[in-house]
């Protein structure tokens, strides 16, 4: 096992970076089972490491000794984010013709200094518009050259749609990034403008329910403007989105993400601001919304503060109801046990009513009566399962019989 393979397996981006910078061979399969660094990165479950190894030129189709690629191994152990990263990877070789001057061109279509951020953008696995906007904010040079960057993306759309192996997944993804870059550029009018306004406009929720309307509208508009209406993926997305009212589920974003990456497992631990998975910080007041960090929480606060209190109350009510339900279940279980015992007792002295009653204390009689009433009430609620309901009915009939 090479040090790079080891670092990749441990999910250590920093160590991998250092080793690669110092000449580590990313495609070495110096391992007893023929694993490459990419296999280990994929198994680590860390998409950042996986992307780093891919960016260093790792071969995607390298097979280990049991004839499995890295993506297959990752799928096998359930590392879906790594599978996504590998399957959607756009190699830097494909960008070279844009960063080098071609034929009669006076300059390359894409300034060479934009190659790296461009690749990072196109290879990102979280395409949530806020996440993209935050990325653009940190890589402002892409937006300052928005015209050129969007143009290259447009060419990639065209190539993907017109090539023999049509790739409408890549085409729609590139078209989506071009749309966001063009939107972002509207916020950079003066040299020292930032993209804060762009990020905030995407996070902002509407007054009535906090739904981020702008995101929805941008994605819908983006799909409307996709130039290849014959694309099957486009048609499928439009069919799914068109009947949905803005604000209802599924959102255009959910539909787009599952169209590009395959089925999305709805996960309530994803960040409410940027969609990042496994966001572990929760709003301390309502415990209902998750965030990556304080940055995401602060961005969302102007929207969330209008709903935090009511969400906290709803959470409390839900918790109380859950506890009450549990207590009731426990109580009715006890009642059942008690009743069963009493029925056994009753059937023994069934022949002489007088004897039966005299054998019981007043308290016991009262208990039987009240549990019978409860029994009828419980049987009427639809929260019971069929069999439990039947048990209770049979029991109730038995009691009626034993009384008469
Ligand atoms: Zn976040
Ligand atoms: Zn809250």
TrEMBL record:
GO terms for cellular component: cilium. Residues 319-404 are annotated as: Disordered. Gene3D superfamilies: 6.10.140.2220, Ankyrin repeat-containing domain (1.25.40.20). It is found in: Cell projection, Cilium. ANK repeats lie at residues 1-31, 33-65. Residues 361-374 have a biased composition (Polar residues). Residues 271-308 form the MYND-type domain. One of its GO terms (molecular function) is zinc ion binding. Keywords: ANK repeat, Cell projection, Cilium, Metal-binding, Repeat, Zinc, Zinc-finger. Pfam families: Ank_2, zf-MYND. SMART domains: ANK. Residues 319-341, 389-404 have a biased composition (Basic and acidic residues). This is MYND-type domain-containing protein. The lineage of its organism: Eukaryota, Metazoa, Spiralia, Lophotrochozoa, Mollusca.
